[in-house]
Amino acid sequence: MGRKPDKDGAYGKPAKYDPSFRGPIKNRGCTDVICCVLFLLFILGYIVVGIVAWVYGDPRQVLYPRNSTGAYCGIGQNKEKPYLLYFNIFNCILGTNIITAATNGLQCPTPQVCVASCPGALWVPQESQYSQTVGEVFYSENRNFCRPGVPGDLPVLQSLEQELCPRFLLPSSPALGRCFPWSNVTSPELPGISNTSISQGISGVLDALNARDISVKIFEDFAQSWYWILVALGVALLLSLLFILLLRLVAGPLVLLLILGVLAVLAYGIYHCWKEYRVLRDQGASISQLGFTTNLSAYQSVQETWLAALILLAVLEGILLLMLIFLRQRIRIAIALLKEASKAVGQMLSTMFFPLLTFVLLLICIAYWAMTALYLATSGQPQYVYWAPNASLPGCEEVPMNASCDPMAPSRNYSCPGLMCVFQSYSSTGLVQRSIFNLQIYGVLGLFWTVNWVLALGQCVLAGAFASFYWAFHKPRDIPTFPLASAFIRTLRYHTGSLAFGALILTLVQLARIVLEYIDHKLRGAQNPVARCIMCCFKCCLWCLEKFIKFLNRNAYIMIAIYGKNFCVSAKNAFMLLMRNIIRVVVLDKVTDLLLFFGKLLVVGGVGVLAFFFFSGRIQGLGKDFENPHLNYYWLPIMTSIVGAYVIASGFFSVFGMCVDTLFLCFLEDLERNDGSRDRPYYMSKSLLKILGKKNEAPPGDKKRKK
Prior knowledge:
It is found in: Apical cell membrane; Cell membrane; Membrane. It comes from Oryctolagus cuniculus (Rabbit). Keywords: Antiport, Cell membrane, Glycoprotein, Membrane, Transmembrane, Transmembrane helix, Transport. This is Choline transporter-like protein. It is a multi-pass membrane protein. There is one protein chain. By secondary structure, the chain is mainly α. 32% of the residues are buried. Strand 3 and strand 4 form a beta hairpin. The radius of gyration is 35 Å and the shape is elongated. The protein has helices spanning 33-56, 60-63, 90-95, 98-103, 134-139, 156-161, 195-283, 287-290, 303-326, 328-347, 354-377, 431-434, 436-470, 483-494, 496-522, 529-563, 567-579, 582-615, 635-673, 686-692, and strands spanning 83-86, 112-115, 172-175, 178-181, 382-387, 404-405, 420-426. Among the domains are: 65-176, no CATH class; 383-426, no CATH class.
């Protein structure tokens, strides 16, 4: 009924009775001090990296476009001119591909000016206007699209030859701070550019224009439906609380219903495979006739495929039935622990909202990394070089093409037609710029380490709170007044180093997985089948290792919260305790996973169905105050509600899962420490005592325990 004694001591000795033990110990010392110091030094270095990035970085290079002189549009002297106009935007498409242009800040080899508004009509100067001045043709007609400082008395022909003013204007709309032409514009007669290239250029920038329209529509949809999304999230919160209450009342029937449901699904799968197999067997469709093929769907038409699936499902059905028969006692223990966990959560409702603090801390870690990475990426100064449309023309021989230049300085006296000082890239000189890669790696390590530490903090704090519930002899009288706050202060004060140690181990494994994925992505085209197989094996091993470390860390944090020992000792004790009760561990883990999966399915599915019927207008007669908003994309608030419901359900059920794991370890320790006598009574609930066939000579409530 219980665990078998570990005679050879392969998994350590059972915990001994300690008359002074009353749950999470009060007198404890700091653990893993060296790792705590390293973590604090690392955080200090992380802050220094952020300061360096803030000093040398300039995110305006990403947020604002630059004109040909290097000035930003939308700020400073161009505050009233937020948009960038390309004199000949088709040079961007013809001179380079759109991806390269995007990585260079959407710069291209054509003059660019900051404008207050994009041109709204097609315009091409007539030959009769060539002899007029810039003031007459451009400024007086409100065409303020010439370069800054062009005099109004300059002849139009001269301004066009020197590319001081645009040769044509296309009706445009702003997108990403830049003027992009409309797709239905009539192509003007332009020298050097054919109608085909114009259509290609417009289609190339059409995606950016559509993206702008879509973003506006998305913003409008959120503005129209945000309060209904909040209502959907509130429904998700209520459903999560209702499910946990349901576990307290009907955990046994619910678990039985889920197990029978799985058995029924497998039984139907067996029936379906048998039916398909019998039909194909009568038709004589065999794999010997099909042979080997890479078309996997073809294997559905042979009898051997369905026979193999039939055997596999039958084996799974048999294993599940045998587990249900022979492990029924342990399943009853798992159900009782689930009920006890629901009671613990009910006694400490503040734990249900603790994930909000964890979420805020995670948001801070991710936002800090994102801002640091952005500032580091923009720490270089822009570099400009000389460029001309045709370097072979007369007068261009003396121009040092691709040599550095200053767009703010007066133009040198070169006679090369169309010569410009254009943006090339951001400089990589200087100590900070040369160390950007290393600093970015430091930032990624900081992101993973801090995120894993925050998650570890949440697990350890919750474990301390729930352990105080289990080891309270008289419930709820002996439960501390503020168990969550006490556990939080205790964890931060004494065990920051232990949490950092566990988080660092997990971080190194996760970084190894990322490096392996990067190598696999880079070498995918050059790998042979053997190399791909080896790479898959390595990735599978690292995935399994990460899962195991997460499991070990989780239980180690529980032991740290209770006993206050360092990470290695706590991990060892937790692992040995679990191995001494491995069958109970497997049963409880699978039953809990099944229940939490069903709970998430209930919450997310319920909110998703409700949101679909509401936002799609399929619910009629709700009245004026409850009418669905008129949306461009009704699926957008639906998906937002579903994702939000999943996040809320995951937060609530993670607390419940941590409670189950903590109570389970305490239950195993209780079995080893105590025997139910008057001097050593069990701390477990009466339902667990009844299932185990045990009883207390001094049951909880009858004997006063000194604290």
